[in-house]
Design goal:
Distance between the termini: 27 Å
Strand order of the largest sheet: 2-1-6-5-4-3
Low-confidence stretches: none
Strand content: 15-25%
Oligomer: single chain
Shape: elongated
Length: 307
């Protein structure tokens, strides 16, 4: 039986064809609402089960109908997770997705799934987040969003305006080009590999913030580390302690959520992903995910889409 609940001997039908055709889009919507690939996959399973019970002859727009089911299921799941995230050990970071180069080429898609923006979305209420994602990232109409979140179109317009204003006040001031971000990442990697504190300070912004997510499973800072000197010494100190223990540290450049990042390995085993936020050619944010439950998408690209 495949991931859609269709047995190997079953001939594909219109419902299956439609679901498969829009799967990457539906996954991306659920992921942006939830910040978790594992939860997004669960939402897709729930969406599939509901979709198989729909009379397709009554569906005028299959894509819109699937988006509505997916959004509703994702929103319900997000509401149920609020307490769990409030009691999470240390900073909660979105589950990182290793992505293919084509995602980085789609500037709007890469921005919508960036770690920096996903963290801003965490400050919205569940309904605000769903409305913002559907409207801003996927250009879904207000009437369709209203049906997905059980609000009137007029209310959705107000929610969208409020969410947009909230996000605009907190999102990165300017999105660095891929070339600029790549240059900053390379300078950061060289400084770490050579244990050069001054070189590290040269690429870090004075007010840089490091967030590390171990989920209470792996060691990580339980509070944000703020300031270039503190961040630099924290990183180099951790690297030095690991090296003294005889563990080999390697860093592999990858694309995470559409942006340049590093895949960190200890003795060849994946330890985490280090994503960066770059403004004015310097790193203003570092996001280190070590929680092993969030690293299942760190080995191969995950297909995501806006259309």
């Amino acid at each position: 039986m495949n991931e859609f609940g269709v047995g190997p001997a079953t001939v594909a039908d219109p419902a299956t064809d439609a679901f498969i055709a829009h799967r990457s889009l539906l996954f991306t919507i659920a992921y942006e609402i939830l910040g978790s690939a594992a939860d997004a996959e669960d939402v897709l399973q729930e969406t599939w089960l509901r979709w198989t019970g729909v009379d397709l002859e009554q569906v005028l727009d299959q894509r819109s109908y699937l988006i509505r089911i997916t959004s509703r299921q994702a929103l319900n799941r997000l509401r149920g997770q609020q307490r769990r995230r409030e009691t999470y050990v240390g900073p909660w970071l979105p589950e990182p997705l290793v992505t293919a180069p084509d995602v980085a080429e789609d500037v709007e898609l890469a921005e919508s799934v960036s770690m920096a923006l996903m963290l801003v979305l965490e400050t919205l209420s569940p309904t605000e987040r769903a409305v913002f994602v559907l409207r801003e990232a996927f250009d879904v109409g207000y009437d369709e969003i209203a049906a997905a979140v059980d609000r009137s179109p007029a209310a959705v317009r107000q929610i969208a305006h409020r969410a947009r204003r909230h996000v605009d006040a907190r999102r990165p001031r300017a999105v660095a080009s891929k070339k600029t971000a790549q240059a900053a990442l390379e300078a950061f990697q060289r400084a770490i590999e050579t244990a050069d504190l001054q070189a590290l300070l040269d690429v870090l912004a004075p007010d840089v913030v490091l967030l590390s997510d171990g989920g209470g499973i792996e060691q990580a800072a339980t509070h944000p580390v703020v300031g270039d000197d503190k961040v630099g010494r924290f990183l180099l100190g951790g690297i030095a302690k690991t090296a003294v223990s005889g563990v080999a540290i390697t860093m592999e450049p990858v694309l995470v959520n559409g942006h340049p990042a590093l895949l960190m390995r200890l003795d060849g085993q994946i330890d985490g992903t280090m994503s960066i936020r770059v403004e004015d050619r310097r790193i203003t944010g570092l996001y280190y995910v070590r929680n092993p439950e969030k690293l299942t998408r760190a080995t191969s690209p995950t297909p995501i889409a806006r259309r």
